[in-house]
Amino acid sequence: MSLRKFITNKTTAALAVLLTVFANTSAFAQEAAAGAAAAPKVDMGEVYKSVIFYTLIFLAVCVFIAIIGKSIKVYELSREAQGKPIGINWNGVHASLFALFLVLGLYGVYWEYTVHGSMLLPDAASEHGKKIDEMFNLTLIITTIVFIATHILLFGFAYIYKYSAKRKAYYYPHNNTIEKIWTIVPALVLTVLVLMGFLTWRSIFFKVEDPNNKPLQIEVTSEQFKWSIRYPGADGIVGKKNYKLTTASNTLGIDFKDLNSRDDEMADEMVIPVGKPIKLILNSKDVIHSFYMPHFRVQLNTVPGMQTIFEFTPTKTTRQMQEETNDPNFKFLFFCAKICGSGHWNMQKDVRVVSEAEYKTWIAEQKTYLNDDLRKQFNLPVAPAPAKPAAEGDSLATDSAAVKGNQMALNK
Amino acid sequence: MSTIALHDEHNHDHADHGHHKETLISKYIFSMDHKMIAKQFLITGIIMAVIAMGLSILFRIQLAWPDQNFPFLETFLGKWAEGGRIKPDFYLALVTIHGTIMVFFVLTAGLSGTFSNLLIPLQIGARDMASPFLNMLSYWFFFMACVIMMSSFFIQTGPASGGWTVYPPLSVVAKAMPGSGMGMTLWLISMVLFVASSLMGGINYVSTILNMRTKGMDLWKMPLPIWAFFLTAILGILSFPVLVAGVVLMVFDRSFGTSFYLSDIVMGTDILPNEGGSPILWQHLFWFLGHPEVYIVIMPALGISSEVISVNSRKPIFGYHAMVYSLIGITVLSFIVWGHHMFVTGMNPLLGGVFMITTLIIAVPSAVKTFNYLATLWRGNIRFTPAMLFAIGLVSFFISGGLTGIFLGNASLDINLHDTYFVVAHFHLVMGSAAIFGMLAGVYHWFPRMFGKMMNAKLGYLHFWLTFIAAYLVFFPLHFLGLDGVPRRYYAFTEFEFMKKWLTVNVFVTWAAILAALAQVAFLFNFFYSIFKGKKAPQNPWEANTLEWTAPVEHIHGNWPGEIPTVYRWPYDYSKPGHDVDFIPQTVPFSQTMSSNLPHDFEGNAEAEKIQQDWELANPVKENN
Predict the structure, then answer these.
(1) pLDDT grade, residue A43 (50/70/90)?
(2) Least packed by Cβ within 10 Å: which of A96, B99, B116, B311?
(3) What is the pLDDT of residues B259-316, one digit of tens each?
(4) Long-range pairs for B116-119 at CB < 8 Å and ≥24 separation?
(5) CA separation (Å) from B161 to A283, B99, B158, B176, B245?
């Protein structure tokens, strides 16, 4: 009987639990301390990776939770036995936890916005990217307001209107006016967002070409797990491809019967002049990939059997970005964003944005896709290639001469 | 009306002398009783959820510690984790199967299958489903689908690994990755069986709801879960066949040399003969199901939470009609928004603009639902049962995840967010976490109805708080990875300079995910322990109004002994002023609640209004109470 009394006494029970827990932890702590003192250089790496270690920790936690559960039960039973009101007001506990969650959560959101929010991509480095960033900021402001307001209401109501036996809930099945308001207001806000988004979208994909500032064509072809970049050469047009022509030496299947392709140049990185519109012609050899160039807010899938086209204008050179971001190693890059196989996670190429002049010197150094092997394959005369190093200025003229020569060769 | 009455009689007869001997097999395995089938769906769903969660922990470990070896991985996975490190191919298989199981087997079959089966007959007052046999087949097709999907872990080339959307040509060309061999074939077979199961279920749900409601249960007196299940089933019936069509074409492409999805493909220097197809076609077919699918996942969860929130706030759900109309709105709109998954696939940009408009419109009914939940909580008398906690959690996730949908639905913003971690964070909140919370709310709420026992509330509290906090810790930071341009389905972040700063975040997220997974142990223990050793459930543990709580706790074939109860009122008469207790079940006629009747209750029935007026004159109300 005395034992029973002892157990039902809630203070004793609680104390006993606390004592056990405390004794255990301090015993463990002592042991650990002793262990640390005796062998300071034990390599725990293997222990931290072993399953048993974590299983034991987990079981210990389970036992601990079970002890707490039992002690709560003992406490509540003892209250009941003494004829007192219920021991723990769980509704109150949860209401307070929701309030606490709201406060901590809001702080967490603030922390995320400021700490992780400052680790994001720098401002867009392209013209349309600025519009996207503006849209993003507007959407972020609106959604953040709604997010915080609704959560304050949700957890606030949970806190304020927790159960009380004295109160009866307010019977309030509907109110058409309120419902109309909160249908129409979101609809209006969304209309604004839709309109802005729609116009931005149109300005990105439906561009009117300026005849005085024709875009530079660059073709990018993806395959598992690499990118090939093709510059159009002096004629400014990337030539035709035909996948059936693919061979080990002509990996892209370029059709050199198309005159436009004869001067096409290959490049290891994408170098583009600042301020000039770039027209990306995207295509894939094998599976779908996605051409993703986040600094410029450019993404489009590359699809086998079809061309996809994205036009953008870079506004900052790599050097400018290095200064802006205070990172001398900063570089633009593009990579794959659509699952494409085991090498998906490392399929990247560098992008360098340079001044117009730097671009011209660089492009002059690039080799053409057409080489002697391919000339033989396509029955073209193996070029003496006399006039290749022609000055940038009149490369077009020399090129057309070369083309004429080739044409004659073809006609023969 | 007469047909319903006839039907009742028929079922009644069946219940009376239909007590044929039940064997172990006919009761527990090939059962045709909707309550048993619901339990089968639930337990299979839980097992699949645990498996899929385990897979997610495996790839989270890889993401957090990409350059460390974990010998136990090799013990479990053998050659797929040689040296204790998961291989890139297997990593992709893990994310693929995780997604497939979670979306289809857990959140579609486990959620709809369980609660539609359990609640439709019980809440509308029917003895069983319209076709119990079809119902049984539905479960067994689902079961076979699960077995076949899991069997792909035991073949040489491993499971399908092209992502849960299995875009061709990656998934069609066997040379593209090991998972596109036998594993993909099994994936397709499993999916066909799954869709068959889901169609049999859906047809059953719709016909049961339309034909077998008890006397007085007109459509506008149905509880909101039933509305949600009804519209979900319609959505499934109309969209799942399109997936099958797509799957069949894919089987043709893979096995019979057709070119529906293939054209101009060169693997290395190997030129494939296929010509004239388009990989984009698959994406249209897939997302024509795929987008309604996310509403198939979330609508039952919303229906369940409507019921749970109303019961535990002791208040009628605010705007019952608006809740139904917003569900209908979501149902209709969900068919014309699939293109927002394809803004950057090279689909005609004109379509991108159109799909953006329809997509952002769907935010309106979703917003209405959220505000109505908040209004229901307002001035309620909230009991925080475990089910209620999960329902509140659902509302929170639905808001958080829904708002990021406004970014992704905007085609211009999607350019830079497409296929990044922002998308991962978005749908894991709004469709993953929210729907799972709806499912858990349902389990805690209807466990007494399913098993006749109560679950331990305190373990439920622990389960909720750990899961709720851990889910936010996992998914909130992931948004920022996406905003920094980190693509999803990357095996490791080690090869990109700008991604290295997120490695510590990955470690944090992985620990949070492990915490969330361990928290589920509290649920699993509680669930299985309570089935056998739980406290016996009272008749109406939550003091709810709906019909299922009038059926006896001990399950009987046919649900109600004797006549099926008649319904007189809507299901949400909680805390009605003038009534002595704070709930009035649907089976209580207005004649017994004269003191609390409102003019609105009579729906223009002049005679009833007259009776009420007479009564009120005879019993003047004490105004100040």
Answers:
(1) low
(2) A96
(3) 999 999 999 889 999 999 999 999 999 999 999 999 999 999 999 999 999 999 999 9
(4) B116/B201, B116/B205, B116/B229, B116/B232, B116/B233, B116/B300, B117/B34, B117/B35, B117/B37, B117/B38, B117/B41, B117/B201, B118/B34, B118/B35, B118/B38, B118/B446, B118/B449, B118/B450, B119/B223, B119/B225, B119/B226, B119/B229, B119/B446, B119/B548
(5) 23, 11, 8, 10, 21
Q: Which of A150-159, A245-254, A383-392, B6-15 has the lowest mean pLDDT?
A: B6-15
- ipTM entry: 0.91
> Which of B136, B292, B134 is closest to B203 using CA atoms?
B134
| Residue reference for tokens 């003992």 | A74
CA distance B93 to B186: 13
| A32 band by pLDDT with thresholds 50, 70 and 90 | low
**Cβ contact (<8 Å) for B410 and A197?**
yes
Gap between the Cα atoms of A30 and A26, Å rounded: 6
- Say whether A139 and B313 touch across the interface (CB within 8 A): no
| Contact partners, residue B477, CB within 8 Å, separation at least 6 | A112, A116, B505, B508, B509
Residue B311: predicted pLDDT: 96
Closest CA to B270 of A223, A268, A262, A308: A223
Of residues B176, B177, B384, nearest to A94 (C-beta): B384
Cβ–Cβ pairs < 8 A, chains A and B: 346
CA dist., res. B316 & res. A168, Å (int): 12
**Which single residue is written with the structure tokens 């308001």?**
A181
Query: Would the pLDDT of B60 be above 80?
Result: yes
Q: Do B370 and A69 touch (CB under 8 A)?
A: no
> Is residue B470 predicted with pLDDT exceeding 90?
yes
Question: What pTM, to 2 d.p., does this model score?
Answer: 0.89
Q: How far is A396 from chain B (nearest CA, A)?
A: 33
Chain A residue with Cα closest to B86: A342
What does the alpha-carbon distance between residue B303 and residue B231 come to, in Å, rounded to a whole number? 10
Average pLDDT of the residues of chain A: 84
E strand or H helix that includes residue A231: strand A226-231
Which residues does chain A have within 8 Å of residue B400's beta carbon, measured at their own beta carbons? Answer: 147
- Which pLDDT score, from 0 to 100, does residue A12 have? 54
Left if phi > 0, otherwise alpha if psi is -120 to 50, otherwise beta: which for B319?
left
Report residue A400's pLDDT band, with 50, 70 and 90 as the boundaries: very low
**Looking at CA atoms only, how far is residue B26 from chain A in angstroms?**
38
Name the CA radius of gyration of chain B, rounded: 26
- The 3-state DSSP class for residue A100 equals helix
Instruction: Show the beta-strand stretches assigned E in B185-341.
Output: 266-267, 270-271
Q: Per the CB < 8 Å rule, is B505 touching A116?
A: yes
Query: Is the separation of the CB atoms in B180 and B162 below 8 Å?
Result: yes
